[in-house]
Amino acid sequence: MAHTGEGDSDRFPRRSVLAGLGGFGIAGAAGCISTKPGVELESDAEKLIFEGFQEASVEPPVETTIYSNAENEGRKRWAQLVQHELDDTDLFDVSFETLEWTSYIDLVNNMAANEENALVCLGFIGGWDPHQYVYPGFHSDSFTPTGLNINHYENERVDELIDEGVTTVDEDERVTIYEELQELLVEESPLSFVRAPEEIVIYRADAVDGFRTYPVPGDEYKSIYAPTLGVYTELATDGTELVGDAGTKIDSYDPVRAADDVSYMATGLLYEQLLEIDFDGSVQPLLATDWHRIDKLTWRFELREGVQFHTGEPFTAADVKATLERYEGSPSERDVYTWYESADVLGDHEIEITLRRPYGPLETAIAQVPIVPKAVADGTHDISERPVGTGPYAFEEHEPARLWRLVANEDHWHDGSNGVPETPPIETVTMRIITESSARRGALETGDIHLTTGLPNESLDAFEDDDGFVVDRTTGAAVDFLGYPSYREPFSNPKVRRGIGRLIPRQRIIEDVFNGAGTVAYTPISPTHETFVDPEFEARIVDEYFS
């Protein structure tokens, strides 16, 4: 799902190809352009922007403001690099402003409605399917404030491709659809994609053994104990408690109400889903042991036997149905009701799910629905007071603004297969809530915490050079972007947006701002999805639109 959060990793979190650069991005093209005195065009990107200005009947320099949220140092710095790059041309006069997070999101959510003259720096957390990257930001049904289409971009062919991609079940056909869609979005450039960030966890080598960083924000603690994925973590000492951190407060225990990465991270070991996504994006069994498509609208799931909730109640198909139907009318309704029609309980451990429409990423979607007891749906258990799942850890205590604590579930269903012990080697997992990055670093260095999920990238060199620490990093399932006020001239002209996109110093941003952490992004889908971001496809996009 696409969602948002605060801090260093916050992101706003779901045709025929037109001809190249309109015949403009070629050597000698400057002879076709007349500029007013004092305006020099030094690159093909600037020529493209100026052509867009002419078509919009706008004279340079164009005044605008680039915004970032004040809490995110990395984002502020790359916003300023973009500001300076634009100001170095004769085409723009760009101011820079920061807002605290709540005010920033208010600006972003309402910029189109208010016709704000604003460039904004944000990012999508996409997850494991391309639909989660393109629908939220680009479909005309997803305008802010209820969706994430921040500039109210609208293109009929984009809508058609997004709808076609999500309802197509053949993977090869989906690849073709999403390649056309990505190229059109690069050509139209309602957003310019800048970087696929890395997910980074730093831990003490003398305290932690076997930890792996998961690519999706919100699942940072998955490798503590994931038996179906064949991974688990041990303490390298004789202790029984792993102490990690969280960068902000935990807002909600309830899956239908949680909307931030930290809440997902805190409850990730507590809840389980029918299916699970491995570190490489492959689908694995979890509470479902077998599943298959009966027809385009029907899936049957065989459920794991011998599973019980932390209350001691047995897990059955009735809990699955109640969980799915609980999303109706909730803040997270779209996570389920874009595809869910109904469910038939065929037995305690068998269920058929009927879809509203053919849905290509059904397995990925199911893997994002934490199963809760039917007692939560019928109101006999208040999950907002005490969260209950089937996971390997159970809720112990929560002291708001201080800590979150889980204890190993001694009655977890795992039998010790797949190279993972029958019970979690770590008895207690505590997340200390530490909002300041300097305090998090100090706590890690003194041993007050064993691992951290949120230090600034400028800290990486010091820890990578120290044998007492392990820096574990992987490309994340997210994309950072620059958003345009495409509802007003001259940014309504795609040539202007595309030209700015060519001026963005992507590699410099990664090296100078993020200490080398991340991958240059030109398209909206993270390179973790190699099926949909094939190197040859990306090379062609770069050659045609960014060279």
TrEMBL record:
Q: Which InterPro entries match?
A: SBP_5, SBP_5_dom
**Keyword entries, A-Z:** Signal, Transport
Q: Which domain of life is it from?
A: Archaea
Report the residue ranges that make up the Solute-binding protein family domain in this protein.
283-534
Where is the chain membrane-spanning?
none
Report any Pfam family annotated for this entry. Answer: SBP_bac_5
Tell me, which GO biological process terms does this entry list?
peptide transport
Molecular function, one GO term:
peptide transmembrane transporter activity
The record's listing under PANTHER family reads: OLIGOPEPTIDE-BINDING PROTEIN APPA (PTHR30290:SF9), PERIPLASMIC BINDING COMPONENT OF ABC TRANSPORTER (PTHR30290)
Family assignment from sequence similarity: Belongs to the bacterial solute-binding protein 5 family.
Q: What is this protein called?
A: ABC transporter substrate-binding protein
